[in-house]
Amino acid sequence: MDLQLDRLDLQILSALQESNQISANDLADQVALSPSAIQRRIRNYRTSGVITADISVVNPRITGDKISVILMIQLAKQGPNFASAFRQALNRSSHVQVIMEIAGPYDLMCITLFDNVDQFNSFIDDEIADHPSVARHEATFVRRRVKFGAAIPL
């Protein structure tokens, strides 16, 4: 992707990160462009891969009490291809919200979500503990979500 973003693009993208449901008319009040020009740019962002997803963030209090767990995983061996099947399995899991490759004593950091401790224990037992790609793992239970977002400062 070799798309050059100008100041207006950054303003539009910043507003879309706050609410992807904002109308082109409302955006035109914030950005010095016509609604039709804004719509064209947004369409271009989506087709070019600048915008990779349009999602709705659900209030976790609405869906009932869930347990958030930060899972740190140390791989058994290093190398780009060694644990690719393991990463893909994590990626497919509905419990895993975020996967990050990190530097330090652990190789992967995952943010996970479970209905209860039994569900967490089953996930660890079935997917993590005895997996040949995993040397060690550690879980930290989240007490309270203070800030949660995916916006990139523009």
Can you walk through the features of this model?
The protein has 154 residues and is of the alpha+beta class. It has two domains: 7-48, Winged helix-like DNA-binding domain superfamily/Winged helix DNA-binding domain (Arc Repressor Mutant, subunit A), CATH 1.10.10; 67-141, Lrp/AsnC effector binding domain/regulation of amino acid metabolism (RAM) domain (Alpha-Beta Plaits). The protein contains five helices and four strands, in the order H-H-H-E-H-E-E-H-E. It has helices at residues 7-18, 24-30, 35-48, 84-92, 117-129; strands spanning 67-75, 96-101, 108-114, 134-141. Strand 2 and strand 3 (108-114) form a beta hairpin. Helix 2 (24-30) packs across helix 3 (35-48).
